[in-house]
Amino acid sequence: MWNPKAECLSREELEELKLERLKSTVRHAYENVPFYRRKFQEAGIKPEDIRSLEDIRHLPFTTKEDLRENYPFGLFAVPLKEIVRIHASSGTTGKPTVVGYTREDIEVWSEVMARTLGMANASSEDVVQIAYGYGLFTGGLGVHYGAEKIGCTVIPTSGGNTKRQIMLMRDFGTTILCCTPSYACYLAEVMAELGVSPRELKLRAGLFGAEPWSEGMRREIESNLGIEALDIYGLSEIIGPGVAAECLCKEGLHIWEDHFLPEVIDPATGEPLPPGEEGELVFTTLTKRGFPVIRYRTRDISFLLPEPCACGRTHIRMGRVKGRTDDMLIIRGVNVFPSQIEEVLLSLGYTEPHYLLVVDRERRLDVLEVWVEVSEDIFRDEVRGLEELEEKIRREIEAVLGIAVKVRLVEPKTIQRSEGKAKRIVDRRDLK
Ligand SMILES: [Zn+2]
After folding, report:
1. Domains of the chain
2. C-alpha 346 – ligand 1 centre gap (Å)
3. What is the pLDDT along the chain (432 residues), one digit of tens a residue?
4. Cα-to-centroid distance, 2 and ligand 1 (Å)
5. Distance from the CA of 406 to the center of ligand 1, in angstroms?
6. What's the CA gap between 338 and 344, in Å, rounded?
7. 147 CA to middle of ligand 1, Å?
8. Is 206 left (phi over 0), alpha (psi -120 to 50) or beta?
9. Distance from residue 178's CA to the centre of ligand 1 (Å)
10. Ligand 1: distance of its center to the CA of 272 in Å?
11. Cα 9 to middle of ligand 1, angstroms
12. Which of 257, 264, 270, 423 has its CA 20 to 30 A from that of 324?
């Protein structure tokens, strides 16, 4: 554990600390960000109205659109000269969302990321290979500063150049790998092609995040790379990686509550949901100065697990993110998450963890086609075997989703590999 005192704080102390920090953040935002002042006034609320943690529900939500509309620095709460770092989203659908950090914010980020790496028992003995993208994306540098804070030996490979990643992993004795789960799968696949056995490596753990993944994918990565694979969670609007992470119990991700206050709401009504109920995750930052965020709607679907964890950490856990309200597919009125299909495919075990969901509209009816890559040895079997397999997968998926789907088995290596976040959905319905 990186910081046992903070990570095992009593619930009472944590609640007190959260309230004190919430009050101070709300005041800071109100006094320094015109956007928040205006929204609080519209909602008829003043900073002094926040007397308990429950009062948070009187504060308005903040959305990604709010961030875009205040591009680039409109939501910063300090003058630019106090900002030492800026990150931004890729902005595929218009202007990017921009976030800024003071020197103290970078310190907080390093601390929560050090705790996150501490989940895998990282120490100065470890060699950490960071294959998240470096640059405006928060992944690479976020993990980097946390690993350096612990005193790990850091290899900042960034994404891509897969053969070199594997060579460095072997030659430098990498013990902990950090990247997206889909890239971890791809690394394992290329290693197998190159004839590099996991036994030649010193890898013992991996911290994988930036996209939703399933238990089946965890088993796949753990057996193919011979490691403990842990899920980490974060988003640049809140701080970057390091908002929450799984401990070795692997039963939910501890949210660092002394820095981030979580809520789960009904995405349709905005009403808070009780612990255990699934809904949209909402976060309020409690210590950030440069870019405080109040009730940010993440669009990520999860739930909170308040029960104590066997690891001894007292911070509340969240369930692994199942999908997003905006990459959730609605097929004939049914909510479909790519991770549900992934789980079915991996539990059957005949195929590679590479798949694509293609949605079309035929005669005004939504049609979901699941493209699945079969493994090399199964593909060599006769066609009849493939048809049976297709049928089997189709039945299993239909049993889970409750709607009819088409399954199409494709040759090995047909589906495009990703070095970052995997693209799982092709939705053609809007094109007609
Ligand atoms: Zn735990």
Report:
1. 80-326 (3.40.50.12780), 331-427 (3.30.300.30)
2. 26
3. 999 999 999 999 999 999 999 999 999 999 999 999 999 999 999 999 999 999 999 999 999 889 989 999 999 999 999 999 999 986 545 678 999 999 999 999 999 999 999 999 999 999 999 999 999 999 999 999 999 999 999 999 998 899 999 999 999 999 999 998 989 998 999 999 999 999 999 999 999 998 888 898 899 999 999 999 999 999 999 999 999 999 999 999 999 999 999 999 999 899 999 999 999 999 999 999 999 999 999 999 999 999 999 999 999 999 999 888 877 787 877 778 888 888 888 888 877 778 999 999 887 778 899 999 888 777 776 666 888 889 999 999 999 888 899 999 998 888 888 777 788 888 888 654
4. 13
5. 40
6. 10
7. 20
8. beta
9. 20
10. 24
11. 13
12. 257
Under 8 Å between Cβ of 295 and 60? yes
Cite the DSSP H helix spans in 157-214: 162-171, 181-194
Q: What is the DSSP letter of 272?
A: B
Distance 248 CA to ligand 1 centre (A): 7
Distance from the alpha carbon of residue 314 to the mean position of ligand 1, in angstroms: 8
**Unique residue bearing structure tokens 């390093």:** 110
**Ligand 1: distance of its center to the CA of 422 in Å?**
28
Cβ neighbours of 204 (radius 10 Å) = 16
Q: For 349-382, where are the alpha helices, taking DSSP H only? A: 376-379
